TrEMBL record:
Membrane topology (UniProt): Multi-pass membrane protein
Swiss-Prot/TrEMBL GO biological process terms: peptide transport; protein transport; transmembrane transport
Top-level taxon of the source organism: Bacteria
Segments traversing the membrane: 26-46, 118-146, 158-178, 190-206, 236-258, 264-284, 296-316
Family: Belongs to the binding-protein-dependent transport system permease family.
Compartments in which it is found: Cell membrane
SUPFAM superfamilies: MetI-like
Cited InterPro entries: BP-dependent_transpt_permease, MetI-like, MetI-like_sf, OppC_N
GO cellular component, as recorded: plasma membrane
Protein name as catalogued: Peptide ABC transporter permease
Annotated organism of origin: Acetobacter malorum
Pfam families: BPD_transp_1, OppC_N
Assigned keywords, A-Z: Cell membrane, Membrane, Peptide transport, Protein transport, Transmembrane, Transmembrane helix, Transport
Amino acid sequence: MTAEAPPPPGPWRQAMRGLARNRASMAALAVLVLITLSCVLAPLYARDIARTDPFTSNVAGSIMLDGHEVDIMQPNDNPLHLGLSPIGPTGHAAYLLGADSQGRDVAARMLYGGRNSLLISSCAAVLCLILAAAAGIAAGFFGGLVDAVLSRLMDIMWAVPVYLFAISLSIVTVSQGLKLGPFVVEADSLLIPIVIIALVYVPYAARPIRGRVLALRQAEFVTAARCLGVPRWRIVLFDILPNVTTTLVVLGPLLMALSLLAESALSFLSIGVQAPAASWGTIIQDGEGLIYTRPMVAIAPGLAIVLVVLALNILGDGLRDALDVRDAARRSS
């Protein structure tokens, strides 16, 4: 008896194999994992390594460097030594990247800020995909009046510049909080930037989803299901949604990158993450006044944003190539 041939791998397993062969995508994924783990371990770094509280002002404090006590706030490097500037990068565990104008450890604040920035951007991307999938599937599958209303609503949102729309919503919610019936969200809650950023990017994700659903609606398996009298909700859940999943997966990293940029911009303008919490955007704002004396305060979080956005874009390109059916067919032939 001849042994039966193993079943061919499924499309998702093939896609993951294709992604694993993409060295650039794997390097980008490794960078994202490393940055995420570093931010998750922020309390451990602040407590056991830097031994500092990144949320408490320490302008009168000092640290030990190479056996010498060094003030955190030091005289300016001018002929008269007027004014004080925070200590620069020390190269040691304590104040590795220096201090900000309040004498707080920049490295520890960066890790804590990264937790909020990554949390907001990832949650905003997921919420945006959920809302965009609901709007795109409804518009593409049901058509008619539903499509007309949702498409015009998306066009109106699309016509308003993203950052102007986000800033307008943020100004209102930061000053008053968010009240949805019996639910009240405080002005300093991270839910506010998550919801705002998710809303402003819904039109950008809903359009490609709607286009994909319009093509699927004419597919033979959907037509056969309709002829058999299958309820619409079952067609949407079991025929349309699984075939839109690849589009959602590809859009995920791109939306997270856009959300991270939007969150950083809003926090830099003081209408995103509110004190005493920190994000990469608020740390850049802290370093704005020190750009000529202690540039690392603003440069370090800026580089972190660049690295994460670049890694997300490379990973998104890798996912798109791995999930492209036509490209996969060419590779297998």
